[in-house]
Write a structure and sequence with these properties.
By secondary structure, the protein is an all-alpha fold. The chain folds into two domains: 222 residues, no CATH class; 185 residues, no CATH class. It has 18 helices and no strands. Helix 4 runs parallel beside helix 9 and helix 16 packs antiparallel against helix 17. The longest helix is centred in the first third of the chain and has 37 residues. It is globular, with a radius of gyration of 21 Å. It is found in: Cell membrane. It is a multi-pass membrane protein. GO terms for molecular function: antiporter activity; xenobiotic transmembrane transporter activity. Keywords: Antiport, Cell membrane, Ion transport, Membrane, Transmembrane, Transmembrane helix, Transport.
């Protein structure tokens, strides 16, 4: 993408002291396909929620909130492992060691299946028992069990999809995964709409449609990761081939991948596990509040797609600069991308807050539920600013291999701050309003601490150690 409008934006950002044109262009080139990819991925569950809300009603929206808590735990384990993959791939590729980068991809794919298979089996066979622990009325729990059991197989496809997306990003190609993921999102809308409205399957149709679309994406990615092209484009430069199997250091590479990924996986899991007590607290105020809370979280997650781009750009550019031994340029990119993220998210938050009643109405038709959901959407708008900044800061730290510190800050924000604030609603007159404060606090604390970490430059020493280990 390019042209005069982009040059105008680059000039404005440069004069405002946000980011210089050269770094903006490189960041933009990496980010915009990843942003579209994030929108495509997150739109699947968001569209499902909207279609189910209009076809079945508030109880179904609340049910998907319960099922989504479990789905996100599984999925974000995969995102954590993929975060370690992009660190190893970008550093090896930046150091011109394509053989090592290819081996990292192969190891990641094996580990994804070992992790995803038991989770998918658990969800598919024990869905009613799992959702029952959250406590609610029978109708929402019934919808939750149906959705979770039928969407569980999609984890077997989503884990490799995440590895494939991060692998392409690690070598500087964010266009190929964007096209594949966007196609998957369109397929998901088509499958789910046909099954929900055409076949009259309701919640079950949404789950089956998502599983089918995710499987199609996995097949398409498998083609590219094997080194084959998509109409003469998109072949992965660090493809998994027969030559990859001759790489002689799979064991140490596996240990290093797990060492880098474990904090990311733990962090992502911790971020999602806190959803269980939060949703349970929301459930004490009835299905309407659960639905409102879930609508707000889905809108926030969809808006966070910008962070997908900025975070992966920070990880890739910082990782490549560190791999090439240029720490000064790595720092310049890190700080500039954090500033760019803050600028974009303030604008996005302003729109979310202004449009909060209309956005709430896009998911539920009951006027009373819309009135309940609108303040939650506005709170999501405030919290997404900090979520976006945190994504860029964490991306920098991930590019250097400094993954333990963001894990600690995530635990502090979610469990040390957000959960106690939400719990105040159970013992004070605040009631459900306490959940609004919890949404903001859970992103504000990690963002503040991770930005301080980036400014401290301690991550450079960790990056040097990882680069040396890969030599």
């Amino acid at each position: 993408m390019g042209g005069r409008p982009l040059d105008t934006v680059a000039g404005l950002l440069d004069r405002a002291g946000v980011i210089d044109p050269r770094r903006f262009r490189e960041t933009f080139d990496l980010s915009w396909p990843r942003i579209v990819t994030g929108l495509a991925i997150m739109s699947k569950s968001t569209v499902d929620l909207a279609m189910v809300g209009w076809d079945v009603g508030t109880a179904a929206v609340a049910g998907l909130a319960f099922a989504n808590a479990y789905w996100q735990v599984g999925k974000f384990l995969g995102i954590g492992l993929a975060g370690g993959t992009v660190t190893l791939v970008s550093q090896a590729y930046g150091g011109e060691n394509t053989e090592r980068a290819s081996a990292a991809v192969a190891v990641s794919l094996v580990l994804t299946l070992l992790i995803a298979a038991p989770i998918a089996l658990l969800y598919a066979t024990t869905a009613p028992e799992l959702v029952a622990v959250l406590g609610s009325e029978p109708e929402p729990l019934g919808h939750a069990a149906t959705y979770l059991a039928l969407v569980a197989p999609a984890l077997l496809f989503e884990f490799p999809n995440l590895i494939a997306s991060r692998t392409y990003a690690g070598v500087g190609d964010t266009v190929t995964p964007m096209v594949v993921r966007a196609g998957g999102a369109l397929a998901n809308i088509g499958f789910s709409a046909a099954l929900i409205f055409g076949a009259g399957l309701g919640v079950a149709g949404a789950a089956i449609g998502t599983s089918l679309a995710t499987g199609v994406v996995a097949l398409v990615f498998a083609w590219g990761l094997a080194g084959r092209t998509y109409f003469r484009r998109g072949a992965c430069p660090v493809a998994v081939t027969r030559e990859t199997l001759r790489y002689g250091e799979f064991a140490p590479l596996s240990r290093r991948l797990l060492r880098v990924s474990a904090p990311l996986m733990a962090r992502r899991t911790a971020e999602m596990l806190v959803a269980f007590p939060l949703v349970a607290i929301a459930a004490t105020f009835g299905p309407a509040v659960v639905a409102a809370y879930e609508v707000a979280r889905r809108i926030r997650t969809l808006t966070d797609s910008f962070s997908w781009g900025f975070s992966i750009a920070a990880s890739t550019l910082v990782g490549q600069r560190l791999g090439a031994g240029d720490e000064a340029d790595a720092e310049a990119y890190a700080r500039a991308i954090v500033r760019l993220s803050a600028t974009v998210y303030v604008l996005a938050a302003t729109l979310l807050i202004a449009l909060s009643p209309w956005l709430a109405g896009a998911f539920v038709s009951d006027p009373a539920v819309v009135a309940t959901a609108a303040p939650f959407v506005a709170a999501a708008g405030v919290s997404v600013v900090f979520l976006g900044v945190d994504g860029s800061a964490t991306g920098t730290l991930r590019g250097a291999g400094d993954t333990q510190y963001p894990f600690v800050t995530s635990l502090l924000g979610r469990y040390g701050c957000a959960l106690p604030v939400a719990a105040l609603g159970l013992v004070t007159p605040l009631g459900a309003t306490a959940l609004l404060g919890a949404m903001v606090v859970e992103t504000f604390v990690p963002a503040t601490l991770n930005v301080r970490r980036v400014r401290s430059n301690r991550w450079k020493a960790i990056g040097r150690a990882h680069v040396a280990a890969g030599d």
